[in-house]
Amino acid sequence: MCSSICAPFYHNQRLSSAAIGDTSLSPDSMLLFVRREMRDITQEKWMLVEYDDGRGGLVPVLPGTMATLRLTAGQVWGSTGANRYAGPCAISESEISVGPLLHTRLTCSDSVMEQEAHFLALLEFVDSFVVCADRLDLRWDNRSGLVFTPMSDRHGLPNLVESSRFDGGNPEEAVPATR
User: Fold this and answer.
1) Three-class SS of residue 143?
2) Partners of 135 in the β-ladder
3) What is the CA radius of gyration of the chain?
4) pTM of the prediction?
5) Is omega for the bond preceding 100 within 30 degrees of 0, making it cis?
6) Given CA atoms 168, 85, 63, 46 in this order, what sign does their dihedral have?
7) Which residue ranges in the chain fall short of pLDDT 50?
């Protein structure tokens, strides 16, 4: 979860020392925060690290599974760890909407299928996002739902998201994701 230090600040927003509870500064002291440029989430390939399992908090993904996310103008796609998915999306400022999603129907263990069900349902339910350091937090109702980290060489992983793009394929293999 991102700390409050990653909360967005408006350009040249000034806070008094009293407003932040710092008694070591004089009452006339001011702190200046400059807003960093927003990371373009469409320029990254994302890997799920935590998700809301519906039991009151974020849990790590199951060992040995890799759920991925790729966003471009108007499209989302990736892997659930068991199947591939794709669908429309809209991104503006810090808002996002996804779906309806299509996905393939391969089966895995019950725990992997349960994780997939949560992932697909949450992905269609998110309404906003926050980028904090190397984390993408897809949220709904200002609550964390899906937390991703960028896929990169530091994970020792190949570019798996590109190969998992669902391009239509056999319509018999695709079914609408359900909420």
Assistant:
1) strand
2) 132
3) 19
4) 0.67
5) yes
6) positive
7) 1-19, 31-37, 153-176, 178-179
